[in-house]
Records
---
Amino acid sequence: MMDRRRPHNEQGRLRSIFLSVCSEKIMKQMLLPRRVARVLWSIVTLLVISSAEAEPVSMAEYQLAPRPDWVQPLALPEGEGRGEAPADDGLRNLLLDSQINLAGDKKERFFRFVMQPLRQQGLQQISSISLGFSPAYEELIIHDVSVVRDGVRSDRLQSADIKLFQREEELDKDLYAERWTAMLLLKDLRIGDIVEYSYTVRGSNPVLGDRFFGRELLAWGVAIERIYIGLLSPKAQPLYVRTSDGITRVKKRSEGELTRYFVDIRNSAALRQEDGVPEWLSPYPYLEYTQYTDWQQVNGWANTLYGAAADPVPAEFGRWLQELRGSPAHKAAAATQWIQEHIRYFGIEHGVNSHLPSSPLETYDRRFGDCKDKTVLLIAALRHLGIEAHPALVSSVENLDLDARLPSPGQFDHVITTFELDGKRYWVDPTATSQSGALQAMSLPDFNWALVVDGEGESLTRIEPVAAEQLSARISVEETLTLDHNRQSAVFEVISHYVGWSAEDMRAYAGYRDVDTVTNDFLQFYARYFPAIEKLEPVEITEVEGRNELRVREKYRLRNLGENSGGQNLLKLAAASVVANISLPKARQREYPFRLPGQLQVDERFTVIAKNSGDLRWLNGQNAETINNPWFEFSRDVEKSPKQVTVNYRYQSLDKSVAPERFGEYLQAIDRLDPSLTYSIWLAPVSVTPNERRDRARNLARELLERK
């Protein structure tokens, strides 16, 4: 699945929407982050996802034509050109106008944008206009480009330099969609000009069937003076419309045999960006619409696409499957992990390939595929093993309340595999990487809801793990610091065990790096606590056989130990692994929840071993500590002996998020935790032997004679 990190430049993000037709998948990428997964398909556009018949286009081209008659004309906000509204990055956004015609022989999406640069930054952004489309099934029709300067409007379409080029923005995510861009380079633009342009994209991906659906944002991360969204639909075809905020009112007007649905929003304020928002939540209100009556209709549509799942597995793969031994669950885990490891992820999302999976033979032979291809191959393998399996459509983001949304294929961006064994329903993701162990040990991301594709299901299915460990992780760290006789240097050995999704994350990290890089990264981690640290041996990573668990061993030399404090040497034993799994957002005054790790346990045991009794001295006031709250549990206790001290830290994350109204309490809990994440001891001063005292006296006498 795609990396869904938020762009830093919010105005740049809005501009990319104003200046191009984007896919639903790209919209999710822009708005929300995501940890791991693969994209199911390229949903056709941001402002509409259409499914009418479309004739293939042999090459990318565009047309010039007037605005269509079905479009509702709109006036600009009052005060045009006076620059009264707030401007983000020097750009005033006067109008976002998107209207969709569902009543023609082909679906049409009309866009009109009006913006005014007030500073140099805004002028730079608006000087080129990018219009994206997929020529395999879409036509691009440019209507007009104009500039208003000092109250006089001038046409700029004829003088614009228009370039067509193919731009694959998602190749770095292993997705190829064959999208093209028409770029209009505008000449002689000045600060204060009002730039207006409009265009239509006609047609849609035929693989999406004969029903229409989509989603429109009702607010953005920048201020917009007027947002208008219109839908023109035939009365003979029911259209279901819903707004996510429950506040924005959708109006409708009868126009003969048609109905026009619309929302008209004035002075839309910029939504404040916050980091750390959970993936399952969208802070952006939206309007959604669909011609699907229920989930069973969506199920029927999807079932027609996955006929290839009934194809037999390739002969060579079938022989490998037949050699598997063990229980059906063991065989299912082995087949899943083989596909994860040997079929690399790459998606060809061009045309019908955006949704139509390849056959098991094709995916096996070429050794690559996207989530739908890998799912079909896995289903064929499981059925070969006598296990009845089905595709399951899921959403990798914004999925917590998926069951409350309108039914449509646009609600999903990923597909996984589901099957039942011994009365238990399993969910596995063949596009996941670095999984190991039994089925119940393989992690399961929080997809929450799925549409099991069997052509019959009438509702979504709640995704429940077979075992709690599928949603949890454990990190156990043993740190042993063995002091030299001088108590100024030591050997430092670390043995860590990663279990569950933490093991999968570590495998994925190490799998893309050589040993030297991994060793240096780990050394730099501890250098924050021990600046004079040196590598003694390379990092060693080994599998714990038969379990979803990794063992990591590190070994270092520490020099210049401790800190001078009042003439004494103070050694601080920090819970480094606990600290590494606790984060705080930049936005402390929050409107949205803050994401937490979920079910994660970190056990860290730090032992210091001295050569002699009395080498270690204790500080008073460092008592055992226990902290309990709704978000985490923490404890620290200390074991002491004359030549050894062991500090046991335990951190248990309990939840997936902190509600915004309780974030202040969470910060207080972290403040209370902070001083307990370090335990300090004194290292006894280095003793001087008689021979050392005699040598020092001789050296001092020699220096005095030389000076004399």
---
Amino acid sequence: MVVLVALGVVVFGPDPSAENGEPVASPPPTPEEPRVQPSGPQEAPRAIPAVRSWEPADGSGWAVTPDTRVVAVLDGVLDDEAERLADELSVPVVEGDEALLGDVLLRVDPDSALDREEYTLTSRDGVLTITGSHDAGVFYGTRTLVQSVQELGGVAEGEVRDVPDRPQRGFMLDIARKHFPAEWIEDRLRQMGDLKFNQLQLHFSDDQGFRIESEEYPEVVSEEHLTKDEVRRILALAESLHITVIPEIDSPGHLGAVLNAYPDLRLLDRDGEPVRGAIDISQERAGELIDGLTREFAQLFPGPYWHLGGDEYGALYYRDPQASFPGLAAAAREEFGSEGTVQDLATRWLNDRADTARDLERLPQVWNDGMHAGGAIQPDAEREVTYWTGREIGARPPEEYLEGGWQLINMSSEYLYYVLGEPVGFVYPTGERIYEEWTPEVLRGSEPVDPALGGPENILGGRFAVWCDLADRQSVEEVADGIRLPLHATSQKLWNPDEPELSWEEFTALADRLEAGVRT
């Protein structure tokens, strides 16, 4: 239970003995009352991801005492952070900006030179102060504090200055091929928040299912699905943890569940056979359908990004797409002239969907193998590219995208793809490989790109991905267990891609202790 001290009154929860459930009031502690001197550890703070800068100082450090309170200005900016931290430390929340001995002071200083997600955590003279220029930085500071209390019992005298190396640090979940209950997703969000991830990508439409309730297109929705109320609950929790949820409706491939309700929009080859999951991009109604779904779900998902998919369009996997799909070829020639191809039509399709996303004030993201080179039309520039492969048809080495001016998000299938059942050569990634070998610059294979093409301004970050190709091969509990350490390792390398100070054995032991709440 959170205790709120404001305007000189301590307000607890309703006392069963009080009339009409009226709150019980008692006077707050005053500066004149003796307060317990905190006695903290001497070791540097320990957290996952590890802090990037620690300056020790002389002093007794900070630890929770019987007098400890969380002090913050509760004007709507730090309310969530203060209440969550107070619950975790089992101490009261105090409205204000002046801390006493043993307190934790949370501060947002909009005039600070700190970046949006940067924070300082200062233990000095028995007071612990977390400062950020935005509430996100303060939140990350509280994650470091809680972990240090769990691991060491407090924080030594000194100052942490911490900032992530990459602005996009995420987890992608394929809920289309396998239904994941809302509670499971919420548990992952809490885990992500503690690890300082800031993005969750939900791939909720594919050949096997469409997994979120639709009021405008109920015919496409699978029997097992999330209701919109469940999604709103997920979004509210994500927002409180400073995690942006990125929706993905993949097209023009991977649309099997939608096309079950719209069979007339299926792509047919020259023999009249439907191509699995592929929509007929020569039909105007096809674009209207996907744009309609996008507009509906843009009202549900408030974040700044929209993932368009774009990968693995079946027509382009034929040796001669023009001969195999004469209808698409004719449409391409009509639109782009005699040299127009099916690939051009696919590029135009994704450009059109990107226009719809931008009209909805969303920044498009696309899979890299939907970005085709050459042809009569080029992919538009205003998009971010999630790079997962250099092997698929239409895929290119990462350098080509970077040299073309597109910013990438690293979703390396070599290190960051957890594909259920391990089909077509995939193996479950290990946290150890990620921790010891991978950095955001390692986009394809195991070698980094040229440093001149890398850096946070070009490679914005990365996402660890769960794909459910063989959905029944693992239960949701087995998935949670299988991705636990890979998520920890990914968090560490996105926050700081340098070689970690801890060995893998030390890192996993720390992760186990933090999860179990066991102190060294």
